[in-house]
Amino acid sequence: METIDSQGRTAATQTDKLLFTPGPLTTSRTVKEAMLRDLGSRDEDFVATVRSIRNRLLAIAGVSQTSGYEAVLMQGSGTFAVESVLSSVIPTEGRLLALVNGAYGARIVAMAKRHRIPVTVIECPENEIPTVAQVVAALSADPALSHVVMVHSETTSGIFNPVAEIGKAVRDRGRSLIVDAMSSFGAVPLDLPTAGVDYLVTSANKCIEGVPGFGIIVARREPFLASEGSARTLSLDLHAQWRGLEGNGQFRFTPPTHALLAFKQALDELDAEGGPDGRAKRYRNNHATLVQGMRSLGFEPYVPEAHQGYIITTFPFPKNPRFTLEEFYQRLSNRGMVIYPGKLTQMNCFRMGNIGRLYPKDLQALVEGVRITLTEMGIQIPV
Ligand SMILES: Cc1ncc(COP(=O)(O)O)c(C=O)c1O
After folding, report:
1. Does domain 34-270 have CATH number 3.40.640.10?
2. What are the domain boundaries of the chain?
3. Which among 52, 73, 110, 334 has most CB atoms closer than 10 A?
């Protein structure tokens, strides 16, 4: 018999390094085990699983088909799902307003340009948030702007952007809001109708703690159906994907069957934890444990506390010339802890995520690992 620890990890899974990253993430043993089946894409069990997953996703978003929303699953990583929305729902005469304060917002602008969608950009520093006033000014200046896109939890820095406030302004002005909620959905509550979100995008392997393999789109049916015929690609055509799922319940192309089975188990585990509120509680505890510990070593988060989310935290490099990310990363990795390089344009930094199947004790272990690593590198503490 395998020994399972209090967090549901076995000796085998404990030998895997813990991933303090924005993804792929550490997942539970039971989520991985759920993949030990081969189901055909037309199998009744599989089709029923997909249907139930789609309904459960709507429930997490606080909406339903009856209230006018649809959940669509799209093969690929999160970026594919974002590109599917952008390239499917903006008509030829549409114009996009993109709010950018990090790499994922910038990626959306690159996508729009690739699809020749006219795009206006409001860019602000990576540790600041866009304001309602900026958005209102841009929308008033250009009546042709039909869609606004923003990132909820900008994983580049860990900042939370004010979706609800901006969403209300966008809705009041009759525009459509697309939200990249990749690293927030499932753990950061967001009321879609109140926030005026028409399209929300996330992925299987973020806060819901499934394995990578597909993205998720929750769309308000009315604008979604009205935009049918706008798709600029075949494989990422969101309407065609939805019609397939609604029609015979199947994906148009080979479905990520194993990832979907894992996801069903991940949804059960999310429920068991108390849904998004319960998950938020654990992630908040993880984040608080990390920040308190890192502060005790002399590290200060890059994002001001008022805007700092509880998903991932960016720390600027210590000023000590002995510090190199390569050595710091490798020594931590050798101790079984994987952190993430920074992605800021202006500053050398590293990131530490606390989502996935991680608990405060894991964050405590990470801080202790950092303390030992700095000592080994001859770096004085506090840094
Ligand atoms: C906010 C955000 N958007 C988009 C992505 C891209 O997702 P993927 O790497 O799964 O394509 C990520 C990935 O971390 C993200 O955090």
Report:
1. yes
2. 11-29+274-376, 34-270
3. 73
pLDDT in tens, 275-326: 999 999 999 999 999 999 999 999 999 999 999 999 999 999 999 999 999 9
pTM (2 d.p.): 0.96
Residue nearest to atom 16 of ligand 1 (CA): 155
User: CA–CA separation, 70 vs 186, rounded Å?
Assistant: 17
What does CATH list as the number for 11-29+274-376? 3.90.1150.10
Tokens of 273: 């934890």
State if residue 88 touches ligand 1 by the CB under 6 angstroms criterion: no
Q: Is the CB of 182 under 6 A from ligand 1?
A: yes
For atom 14 of ligand 1, the residue with the nearest CA is: 22
Both tokens of 217, joined, read 């789109």
For residues 335 and 377, the answer to whether their CB atoms sit within 8 Å is: no
Which atom of ligand 1 is the closest one to the Cα of 81? 11
- C-alpha 104 – ligand 1 centre gap (Å): 7
